[in-house]
Amino acid sequence: MNKKNKGRKFLNKTIQTKRDTIVPATIFLIAYAAWAILVASENQFIQKFDQTVINIICNNNPATIKFATTFTNLGNTNVIMLETIILVIVLAFCRKFAYAFFTAGTMIVANGYNWIIKHAIARHRPLTQHLVAAHGYSFPSGHSVGSATLFGILIVLTILLIKNKAIKTVLCIIWACFPILIGYTRIFNHVHYPSDVVGGFLEGIAFLLIGYSFLYHYYLENQRAQKNIY
């Protein structure tokens, strides 16, 4: 009887947890959809938001220009792709196959969807002179989507795989800084509106949470269930 009660209690907890893990993803998806609609409709709020942030961020400081034009390269598609491939190979080599599939799948879906939305909304880039080369449409920022998703994945993997709390905290802070700084450089370099960067972050986080939800439901919960059985 005790084993049956324990099993039912665990099953109920598992079902509730599954519901809970999809809630944040749903919230970010809704927020992203609402933001994309505002951008696509050229809402006045978006225009005011963009101009306010641009006035705060942009300047002619040589040191800042040097940093922004250099650091932004870390968010380039080929760089993000290379970093993703290396991460997937390392995870597979360490026999962390579920985490490797989580990484590859989340990155492919997030960036593939971003390409579709870019062409659907077809927002042109700022008319101001660009400080770095930029091609294609503006919304959402591909650099922001790619970096938010990849470094978000690194945060998830750090939390799940690193046991030392101090190291875990430091790494998570470092990973979080990368997409923020990359997003900043895209605005500073005049190749994206601030709303492009916000949209990219919302999209990247939404797909990260969806990917984590799949990882949690189909791998982590099974691992926990097996530990409870044995």
Short description:
With 230 residues, the protein is an all-alpha fold.
Features:
230 residues; mainly alpha; 8 helices; disordered N terminus
Report on the structure:
By secondary structure, the chain is mainly α. It has eight helices and no strands. Helix 3 packs across helix 7 and helix 6 packs parallel to helix 8. The longest helix is centred in the N-terminal third of the chain and has 39 residues, at 2-40. The chain is globular, with a radius of gyration of 20 Å. The two termini are 17 Å apart. Residues 1-17 have low confidence and may be disordered.
Topology:
Blueprint: H1 2-40, H2 44-57, H3 62-71, H4 77-93, H5 97-121, H6 142-161, H7 165-188, H8 194-229
Helix pairs in contact: 1-8, 3-7, 4-5, 4-6, 5-6, 5-8, 6-7, 6-8, 7-8
